[in-house]
Amino acid sequence: MDPDQQTSPLPRPSAEYFQWDYRLRLIGLGFGFYVATFLLSHLLSLALSRTYNSLPAKEKVFWNIAASRAAFGIQSTVAGLRALTEDSELTRDRVRGQEDWSWFNVLTATGFFVFENVALHTSNVVFWSFDLPLATHHFFALSGYAGAVVWDSLGHFLPMVTLLLEMSTPFTCISWMLLKAGWARTLFWRANQWVMIHMFHCRMVLTYYMWWVTLTNWGEISTHVALPQRLLFFSGLGLLTVIINPIWTHRKTMQLLNPVDWNFGNKPAPLNGAAEDRSKILAKLHAS
Which residues of 212-237 are buried (b: 16+ CB within 10 A; e: fewer)? Predict the structure, then answer.
């Protein structure tokens, strides 16, 4: 072939390599993996944790969901940082760029959000409870990633950066489990709380960055992104920016100053070990 006639190969459209049967398998894989994480957390905690065994059934479910979220948070942080730092089709075309690894994360994340919604609504039915903000958050998460699967010409830069918002979930999981174990007065819990609060501030900065990306690419987004997907994305991003992130950041900051379990009626953190013994001694001295 004449060298002058050679052209550089065009990047292959990843969507063509992820046909619907393969997509459904990966969604099922994500769902199954996080169900297995939930069950493994239950079995290990049942065998090893005295705190877990003392919890009411509803809080045991929340404990295991928190462990599953922490695992997903690790996967999401890796995917989000990769999208931000790696030179790939995602960064070269922030509206339509896709990679095989980003497809894997979109599909398994969809499986996770299916699991989250099933776990949340099953828990609501069993325990006769309903958390509207959490249900709304889960609705937008599942709808957004399911939309990225259906409208497969959508680029994956923003979905991967959105996953990075889960950077706080491992620290949230540690915070809540240690609080229930009575370790909320320890240096380790406070250090974790400081890191978690910093992650929530990073979430807020990340949402501002996402607005900047969308505004600077508005022409392409309005042309190539389907209207339902745009409505879902901007509604969810608006809720995160104006309501969810500020409220959660405020709550976590106040929790550092006053350790309470605001997931379950603002119950004060139990004492543990030496602190509990000291409180008993002081109570006896006061009574005498």
Answer: eebeebeeebeeebeeebeebbeebb
